[in-house]
Amino acid sequence: MSDVYQNILDRLFAKYRDSPNILGVLEILSDPLQDTNDAIDWILAHLSIDDGVGEILDAMASWIGVTRPPAQETRLFRLCRDEEVAEDPDNLHGLAPDDLSSGGYLSADDGCVSKSSPGTYVDDETFRLYIRAKAATFRKRATQEVMFNYILQFGIRSKLAETARAVEIEPMNYDDLSLFVRNYILTRGYRPAGIRLSVKLQTESSSEI
Predict the structure, then answer these.
(1) Which domain holds residue 113?
(2) Is there a domain that residue 161 lies in?
(3) I want to staple 107 with a disulfide (CB 3.0 to 4.6 A). Which of 112, 166, 177, 197 is the partner?
(4) pLDDT over 70 (residue 158)
(5) Percent of the chain at pLDDT above 90?
(6) Is 176 in the same domain as 115?
(7) Angle, helix 20-44 to helix 4-11, in steps of 10 degrees
């Protein structure tokens, strides 16, 4: 990291180096200039998806058309059939005991915007998933390799069923993708020209790959 104060001193003629008036002016100027220089150095060191934070990450995402989505509610109800409850000895469908039944919200197909923190947006770590996914497919054709790479950016394993004009994504586990992420993939993520993208409607929580 460069030192603004020392750089200015080195550029002065030798006979002015020890002038108390000049040194006094430089001491006043060097603090704000040093802060500016440090800020520029910090920004330049964080111009990547891995290192960028906050508004810097927002700016990088905007270069490829990605915007930060709203934060999603984590306390959600899940509706299920009676037979699913009867066949659920491990309580995987979330029938919580009384001390944990503090309420929640039903999620729509496009997710559920946070009720506990309204007006907030997804954190940087989550936002990086969406940026990487778009970057992995930016201006690329919907080949099998590109599609697999796209889905892997969301941290899931899946298989793809392809036809001439359609690609269907089948996650290994239904619960790997929230309703919001499913909707994001189909409506705001990769939109290959002339190809219809869909997520398989699974009737069970797990799907064998």
Answers:
(1) 70-120
(2) yes
(3) 112
(4) yes
(5) 2
(6) no
(7) 130
